[in-house]
Specification:
Beta Polymerase, domain 2; Ubiquitin-like (UB roll); four-stranded antiparallel β-sheet; globular; alpha+beta; binds manganese (II) ion; Hypothetical protein af1432; five-stranded mixed β-sheet
Length: 571
């Protein structure tokens, strides 16, 4: 194996990138020296295969380096300290993130899947950690046949329930398709074989047919002087065909889009011109024209789909999209990312549509002006006020920060809450006012004689637990505990004094932080007596000190900000 297998996939690697990647390659090779995969091959093929996948989609160097190193602590002979020393904080952070996620194991309890996904995101802290995990998982799935049989199904199910939806939400269609089909094969082997047979059945002489379709459409486009970049056809991924087949009473003749012809154009205008040309040749099937360019899908997917009565009346789907849309459909968030890094001109001068889920996830506002801002936006902080705690069986319970075992007990079942006599966290006894931490395993001890008491109201933090305790006290003991008066959160005014460098875009960056927190600024002054280091004074209202602190923390991260001083103004 040679590091060039990775390097040759990178389009714009600098000398420094090459050095870093080569160093990591040698480091990992040594760390995994005497280890083997289940297949009997050297363990080292695994990180290299994953790194190749991410080089292919032009991930940044820290990500590729971290991918090469992702198993050296867990499975190899290296320590986190060594990684930090040799490769720096950023790489060490990414490797640590991947290791942490490795401890999250899916036990196959349907109702907790969504929590597990959230937990995954909250633990990852950086989208790149998830992307590394996707490449890691893809190679593991590609080599799953070597893994002992009793483990295969669990891994495949976990892939289907956790990794596939994450890839989908990140808009990474290519990973999604690959992972989905690999997992499909192991989770539902019979259905997999059946679907495969349906598609490759004798009725589909598709190669020959598709060649004819492509010739015909190319001719028409040429006649009308419509330029395209590429035309190709593909068989839909098996799992999505299977899901459709189930909806259509397992009747393959009712599924039109097992094959699709894909046409890639230079710009949006040409997409519509191509659509026109197709409809001039063949009649569209009513109700099957979908304009995802005008109305993108939730994960940002853009394309025009149309299904027509094609040659010999055969029903065939066409997908039309620009190069950029294609890149995005395949690699999702990564293409945004690679895009910002390369600083290319935005398509048609317009700001590209963001992936709505991602933007929601990260409160990611507007366009990303600089690389640093973009990198910051990769930090996941939506779930920062939530923690995810395991039951001993591996279920995941979603709780607010500062939740206690009492909250945990009530969110399992009110009966468990009412008879809670104690708790163990990671196998050690804890008191009932213990503050649970993300990723801990909590076990509730119950006793028939234990009953809720008034004191529990102080221990509980979730309103659900409090209400249950209150209603128990009322019903069983006839004690009415008055609710504490609703904490009327008064709006307070805060003043920030921000010392910052005098750079272009500074104000815009600061304002976008307030905007993303949905805070309206009351007053903004710039004191420029010190030309190089102006002081920006911002006065704004907000409900809590915590929010003000969060805003301050964000401002401190803005490039060129030297200090932020916070003051609560007396009304
Ligand atoms: Mn791995």
């Amino acid at each position: 194996m040679d590091v060039n297998e990775i390097l040759e996939k990178l389009n714009n690697a600098t000398k420094k990138d090459v050095e870093q990647i080569t160093k990591a390659f040698e480091f990992a090779k040594k760390a995994h020296k005497d280890q083997k995969r289940y297949s009997g091959e050297s363990y080292f093929i695994h990180p290299v295969a994953a790194a190749k996948m991410l080089a292919e989609i032009q991930m940044d160097t820290p990500t590729i380096v971290a991918t090469l190193l992702h198993d050296v602590c867990e499975d190899g002979h290296a320590t986190p300290e060594q990684i930090k020393k040799e490769f720096g904080e950023e790489v060490a952070f990414l490797v640590e993130g991947v290791t942490k996620l490795g401890t999250v194991k899916y036990q196959g309890v349907e109702r907790h899947v969504e929590n597990l996904r959230k937990m995954f995101l909250s633990m990852a802290e950086d989208i790149r950690v998830i992307i590394i995990k996707l490449a890691d998982r893809t190679h593991n799935m590609q080599t799953l046949k070597y893994v002992p049989e009793h483990k295969r199904k669990r891994i495949a199910l976990e892939t289907l329930d956790i990794y596939v939806p994450l890839a989908d939400r990140l808009g990474m269609g290519k990973f999604k398709g690959i992972l989905e089909d690999l997992a499909f094969k192991y989770t539902y082997p019979e259905e997999y074989e059946w679907t495969k047979k349906q598609i490759t059945g004798a009725s589909y002489k598709k190669e020959e047919y598709l060649t004819k379709v492509k010739e015909k459409i190319s001719e028409e486009l040429e006649k009308n002087k419509i330029n395209i970049t590429n035309i190709d056809s593909r068989v839909k991924n098996l799992y999505s065909v299977y899901k459709k087949l189930i909806r259509k009473d397992r009747d393959i003749s009712r599924i039109y889009d097992t094959i699709a012809v894909r046409i890639i154009t230079k710009n949006i205008e040409d997409c519509y011109a191509v659509l026109g040309a197709i409809h001039r040749l063949w009649k569209p099937v009513p109700g099957k024209i979908k304009d995802y360019i005008a109305l993108p899908k939730l994960n940002g997917y853009q394309s025009i789909h149309t299904t027509v009565f094609c040659i010999d009346g055969k029903i065939t789907e066409f997908q039309i999209r620009t190069e950029t849309m294609h890149e995005e459909a395949e690699n999702g968030i990564v293409s945004h990312w690679a895009y910002a890094m390369s600083g290319k001109q935005k398509e048609g001068g317009k700001v590209k549509k963001e992936l709505s889920w991602v933007s929601e996830l990260r409160n990611w506002q507007k366009e990303h002006a600089g690389t640093q801002e973009f990198l910051d936006s990769l930090k996941i902080d939506v779930f920062k006020n939530r923690i995810f705690v395991f039951t001993p069986k591996g279920d995941v319970i979603d709780l607010p920060e500062s939740a206690t075992p009492i909250d945990f007990a009530y969110s399992i079942h009110s009966g468990v809450g009412d008879s809670c006599s104690g708790a163990k966290v990671n196998d050690k006894m804890v008191s009932l006012d213990y503050k649970l931490q993300n990723g801990e395993i909590c076990e509730i001890l119950t006793s028939k004689n234990k009953k809720p008491s008034r004191g529990w109201l102080q221990l509980a933090n979730t309103s659900y637990a409090k209400n249950r305790i209150r209603s128990y006290l009322k019903k069983e003991l006839g004690v009415e505990v008055p609710r504490a008066p609703k904490n009327l959160q008064k709006i307070k005014n805060f003043e920030f004094k921000i010392v910052a460098s005098n750079r272009i875009g500074m104000l815009k960056d600061l304002l976008s932080i307030f905007q993303s927190e949905k805070i309206n600024i009351i007053k903004l002054n710039t004191d420029s007596r010190n030309k190089k280091r102006p002081v920006i004074v911002i006065i704004f209202p907000t409900k809590s000190n915590t929010i003000a602190d969060q805003v301050a923390a964000k401002i401190r991260k803005v490039k060129g900000v030297k200090s932020v001083e916070k003051m609560l103004l007396k009304n």
